[in-house]
UniProtKB/TrEMBL annotation:
Key words of the record: ATP-binding, Cytoplasm, Cytoskeleton, Microtubule, Motor protein, Nucleotide-binding
Entry annotated with the keyword Nucleotide-binding: yes
Signal peptide: none
GO molecular function: ATP binding; microtubule binding; microtubule motor activity
Residues that coordinate or bind ATP: 160-167
Major location (coarse): cytoplasm
Full protein name: Kinesin-like protein
Gene3D superfamilies attached to this UniProt entry: Kinesin motor domain
Family: Belongs to the TRAFAC class myosin-kinesin ATPase superfamily. Kinesin family.
Length: 362
């Protein structure tokens, strides 16, 4: 982790009881999250003050992120109307094309004192809320497409909390991907397959049927989806339509944080044959994680679903950490998700990870 730059501001502390004209015997039961939103005006001032005076100076002396295994890009989404309605505010700054600053707005134990911590992180690339899907494609997915057209194997993972814009970003890049794949003169064949993983069950997204497919282990210890279909793609428009159809078949549910949240991990593979050989593009759109506070609003079925998603994402996080540490053992068998992604970690696959962030203080 990179250094944390903490700044405490001597902001005005209001006595809520006196402010509201209540007697001294009145007790206010407010949690820190609610209290932080009530102090939004003061926190906004503190964040703005820090951005004007300190952010750029810190960025200039920040060590740049570099991983031999993964390229990591972070995209900040705009604040949503429903977040503004409850008084939420922007706590994410994108000062340049490689850095993110998170302004952590905290309340002291007395729920009156306020404290601001500014966390800087460096990545291979960052995108502000002003960035368009085409720009994200050109910087993230286009280099992968070019590698696949030269016979390489590449993977793009979308990761983030539910409602952070993962599926929006992935679908927004697909039309540009389809254009570039079919623009090459050396192209001879494009094959498409896709499935979703829900807990321990898989379904073919090329088929309208909900019949689950069986997961089996091959002779190399890799998990395969038995009976998964694969079709020939006829052209750019055909690929765009197929990708749209598969996205519509993917299972979604309303959650506390997102009215239409993808509740499965989706895997889409393009096998591309050209005069250079055969390459592969794997697009993995992960289900969104949820905080315990948000999943508490669900019924028992949705809570179980959320727990399985969070558990699989934690297993993936641990595999990434072990890979970065060059550990001799990577715990792929912790979940079906990591077992399916094992070839990504154990081959010469080029891996790009797109992390999506919400910008609200909550």
């Amino acid at each position: 982790f990179l250094p944390t730059f903490a700044v405490a501001f001597n902001l005005i502390e209001c006595d809520m009881a006196a402010l509201l004209g209540a007697g001294s015997n009145v007790e206010f039961m407010v949690d820190k999250r609610t209290s932080r939103l009530e102090k939004a005006v003061d926190f906004r001032k503190a964040v703005a003050f820090y951005k004007e005076g300190e952010v750029q100076a810190v960025v200039e002396r920040l060590a740049k992120f570099k991983s031999p295994y993964f390229q990591v890009y972070v995209r900040k989404r705009p604040i949503l109307p429903k977040e503004e309605e409850v008084g939420d505010f922007d706590v994410v700054t994108v000062p340049d094309l490689r850095t993110i600053c998170i302004h952590k707005c905290s309340m002291k134990a007395d729920l009156k004192g306020m404290f601001l911590e500014n966390h800087f992180e460096s990545f291979d690339g960052t995108f502000s809320e002003e960035s368009k899907n085409e720009e994200v494609y050109h910087r993230v997915l286009q280099p992968l497409t070019e590698t696949a057209l030269r016979g390489g194997n590449v993977t793009c993972l979308m990761y983030g909390q539910t409602g952070s814009g993962k599926t929006f970003t992935m679908r927004g890049m697909q039309k540009h991907l389809a254009r570039d794949v079919f623009a090459t003169d050396e192209l001879s064949l494009v094959l498409l397959s896709s499935f979703e993983l829900e807990g321990r069950e898989c379904r073919d997204l090329l088929e309208p049927s909900d019949v689950p497919l069986q997961l089996l282990e091959d002779g190399n210890g890799n998990l395969i989806v038995q009976g998964l279909g694969e079709i020939v793609v006829e052209g750019e428009n055909d690929l765009i339509q197929l990708l749209d159809d598969m996205a519509e078949r993917r299972k979604t549910h309303a959650t506390f944080a997102n009215a239409e949240s993808s509740r499965t991990h989706s895997f889409t593979k393009l096998r591309i044959r050209t005069s250079c050989g055969e390459g592969e593009i794997s697009l993995v759109d992960l289900a969104g994680s949820e905080r315990n506070k948000d999943s508490a609003h669900h019924d028992v079925s949705r809570q179980k679903e959320s727990a399985l998603i969070n558990s699989s994402l934690m297993a993936l996080k641990e595999c990434v950490r072990k890979k970065q540490e060059k550990a001799g053992y990577i715990p792929f068998r912790s979940s079906e998700l990591t077992r399916l992604l094992k070839p990504v970690f154990t081959s010469d696959n080029t891996v790009f990870s797109q992390v999506n962030l919400g910008k609200g203080a909550s």
